[in-house]
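Aim 2 progress update. The chain analyzed this quarter is reproduced below.
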Amino acid sequence: MGNAQSAPANPRYASASRAFSQKELEDHKSLFVSLAAQSQSDGKYIFPSVFKRYFGLHGPLGDRMFDLLSQQRKDQRLSFQDLVIAKGTYEKGTKDEIEEFIYQLVDVSGDGILGS
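Predicted structure tokens:
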């Protein structure tokens, strides 16, 4: 008999969540719940306008950050797993992971080339 619970865990989420203490994960969950409530998404997602307002990111930088955090799905939804994966990368990641995150943030065309 199989397990009738939710879909298998995202390995990136599992890895990122291990980087945080239980208290830090609870704090991330509280932030997510608050922003998801403001997004009026039945607590499931954070929408771009709420994300950008909370973090003070507007214009192309806010759009790019949201896109990167939502794993470039283009569905205009940031899940709790997305938030933990992103925070795990830029708060707890290795130097190389953090540099890659920043590189992806500034590579607005997504072509691997910075500049015009």
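Helices lie at 11-18, 22-38, 48-55, 59-69, 80-92, 95-106. The chain has a mean pLDDT of 87. These observations will guide the mutagenesis experiments scheduled for the next reporting period.
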